[in-house]
């Protein structure tokens, strides 16, 4: 990872509310940032283990609902005279609970789905998302059904001299999303550069060869799913405490599609891919708003994605690094690691 480029990028993003304090711009950037965090989580599964999860919105929605319910409190009749009651918890406790709960669901899906993998994994993740959406629609005692949950408290921060304040301003929400996005990025960077990360990449490149040298397939795939789900749950928790109203639409398939587009266009299997893809496809609808009609917006959106896939099939970030390498050594090809070397690195 290029730390200088990373530091400059973070400083530029961190100074945005200072040099451009427009509430609308900060709101759009905050919303795009939440989807980028979700895309970072999907990239861990899709880019580094090669497993396509088309139900990733389920983890996003579970995180949103768990954090909202824990911060609001709830009481549910379980039948047989039993009642499950939880008093309202502090928002950060609710947020951390959402991460743990989504991590558990990631483990559960991983244990079930990785016994089959491939197309079966895709089907199971889609089915899981649909089941979660039906539960959120029909378990009205808990989720309020289509009406959704409202008046969700904002996240808070202790400030010296001012005490605990609610993070409700656009600038505060933007910085909060940026901070959690940086944590998610660094967590994935540390993981993929560790022995566990090399094992995941080895499984993606050649599962048979990786298994033959003793890499436990199910363990590392389940580990990736747990961490990926937990990060997606954090994105969902952020969404619920910043928008402060959620409904079953957080489980919609379009959210998963958006994450996949961000990862593929930016460059799956690269750390910067979901960030660059997220900035482009997260901000494009807002940049085109008022310039062209809604129908034309989606046409431009689709044409841009198709053009990237046709001319830059590995994504924008790998294409950028290829271009830099071409500038330094015109005509020279970058050396690429062989599959066997990846497996040896993972097994070391």
Explain how this protein is built.
41% of the residues are buried. The protein is 69% helix and 5% strand. By secondary structure, it is mainly alpha-helical.
Question: What are the salient characteristics of this protein?
Answer:
348 residues; two-stranded antiparallel sheet; mainly alpha; 69% helix; two-stranded antiparallel ribbon; globular
Structure described in brief:
With 348 residues, the chain is mainly alpha-helical. 69% of the residues lie in helices and 5% in strands. The protein is globular and about 70 Å long.
The overall pLDDT average reads 88
Q: What is the β-strand count?
A: 4
Beta-strand proportion: 5-15%
Shape designation: globular
Provide a count of the helices.
16
The SS-based structural class is: mainly alpha
Question: What kind of sheet is the major sheet?
Answer: 2 strands, antiparallel
**Stretches where pLDDT falls below 50 for ≥5 residues?**
none
Order of helices and strands: HHHHEEHHHEEHHHHHHHHH
Biggest β-sheet: strands ordered side by side in the sheet: 1-2
Gap from first CA to last CA: 21 Å
């Amino acid at each position: 990872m290029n730390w200088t480029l990373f530091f400059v990028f973070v400083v530029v993003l961190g100074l945005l509310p200072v040099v451009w304090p427009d509430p609308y711009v900060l709101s759009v950037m905050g919303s795009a940032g939440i989807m980028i965090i979700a895309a970072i989580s999907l990239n861990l599964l899709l880019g580094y283990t090669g497993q396509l999860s088309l139900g990733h919105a389920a983890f996003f929605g579970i995180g949103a609902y768990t954090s909202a319910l824990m911060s609001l409190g709830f009481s549910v009749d379980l039948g047989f005279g039993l009642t499950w009651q939880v008093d309202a918890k502090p928002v950060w406790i609710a947020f951390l609970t959402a991460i743990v709960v989504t991590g558990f669901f990631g483990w559960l899906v991983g244990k079930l789905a990785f016994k089959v993998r491939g197309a079966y994994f895709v089907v199971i993740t889609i089915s899981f998302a649909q089941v979660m959406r039906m539960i959120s629609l029909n378990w009205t005692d808990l989720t309020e059904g289509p009406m959704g949950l409202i008046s969700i408290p904002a996240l808070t921060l202790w400030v010296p001299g001012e005490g605990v304040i609610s993070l409700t301003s656009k600038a505060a929400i933007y910085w909060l999303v940026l901070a959690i996005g940086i944590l998610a990025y660094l967590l994935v960077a540390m993981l993929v550069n560790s022995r566990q990360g090399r094992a995941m990449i080895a499984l993606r490149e050649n599962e048979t060869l990786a298994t033959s040298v003793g890499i436990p397939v199910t363990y590392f795939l389940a580990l990736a799913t747990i961490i990926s789900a937990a990060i997606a749950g954090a994105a969902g928790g952020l969404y619920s405490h910043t928008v402060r109203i959620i409904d079953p639409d957080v489980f919609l398939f379009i959210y998963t599609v958006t994450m996949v587009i961000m990862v593929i266009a930016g460059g799956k299997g690269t750390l910067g891919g979901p960030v660059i893809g997220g900035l482009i496809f997260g901000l494009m609808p807002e940049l085109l708003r008022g310039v062209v009609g809604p129908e034309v917006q989606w046409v431009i959106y689709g044409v841009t994605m198709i053009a990237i896939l046709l001319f830059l099939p590995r994504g924008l970030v790998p294409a950028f690094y290829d271009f830099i390498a071409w500038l330094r050594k015109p005509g020279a090809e970058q050396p690429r690691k062989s599959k066997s070397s990846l497996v040896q690195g993972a097994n070391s």
